[in-house]
Amino acid sequence: VLEDAAPRVLLADAAGRSALGDDALRDLTVVDLAATPEWANLPASDPDPRALGLTSRHLAYVIYTSGSTGTPKG
After folding, report:
1. How many structural domains compose the chain?
2. Is residue 53 part of a domain?
């Protein structure tokens, strides 16, 4: 996914960096939100979206599938 998407910045915690490995992250700018003071003190659980004013108009998701071709596409 990283190779195909070619992101400029990646948000990843320690577990994510470990899972991806140094080779995959070599040419990326990786931001660890847990190490960022503004984010480090936030709760680990998701906030109530309604309390933030979020509705179904604010949805975001990623679909990454090979479909019937066997070649990944996003």
Report:
1. 1
2. no
- Which of the four pLDDT bands, split at 50, 70 and 90, describes residue 72? low
Query: The domain containing residue 17 runs over which residues?
Result: 1-40+60-74
DSSP string over 41-72: TS-SSPPPGGGGT--GGG------B-TTTTS-
Q: What percent of the chain has pLDDT above 70?
A: 89
**Residues paired with residue 74 on neighbouring β-strands, in sequence order:** none
Q: For residue 44, count CB atoms less than 10 angstroms from its CB and return exposed for 0-12, middle for 13-18, buried for 19 or more.
A: exposed
Neighbours of 13 (CB within 10 A): 14
pTM metric for this prediction: 0.53
